[in-house]
Amino acid sequence: ATLRGVCHQRVPLFFICAWRFNDERVVASTLTHETVHGIVHRYATPARLPDWANEGFAEWVAKTCVNRSPVDANRRPQGLAFFRAGTDPLKVMAMDGQAGTWPGDNAIGYSVGYLLVDLMVAERPRQFGAWVKAVKGGKDWREALGSEFGMDQAALARAATAWYRTNDGPPRR
Predict the structure, then answer these.
(1) Which of 141, 166, 140 is nearest to 80 (CA)?
(2) Percent of the chain beyond pLDDT 90?
(3) Contact present, 63 and 12 (Cβ < 8 Å)
(4) Cα gap 117→84, rounded to integer Å
(5) What is the pTM of this model?
(6) CA–CA dist 2, 76 (Å, integer)
């Protein structure tokens, strides 16, 4: 994949570097994605979401906020293929940029993270927000997933696998 932008985070600042492409939708989506990283970094504390949620949420916001964003068309097919192949999303949830395991083969972490966040926001938007606030407040993301979102890591992985094996999009509210 071609690198289009990056958000450097240094307490209390963030800096976005972006490379311009001819497709305005790609430019707008990339700038939105990277800006989300900066905003999340600055929100409350510099505590970080896990990589799958950090990238998945940035992709979700770019898809939601940019008219005709290419994010969904770029990420959903790869994510759906992952779930339909029976691959365990817990493997992606365990990936870590600090350890050098993120984003996985063919950058699968972005697509799976995007679908996980898409499902979480569609099914439990208030709980998703509470989870983000808890993690930003210093709570371990796994613990906060159970206490704030109402599912432990394994339950979220099972729910996403069950949903995306037969459904292309998130549940409708």
Answers:
(1) 166
(2) 71
(3) no
(4) 18
(5) 0.90
(6) 18
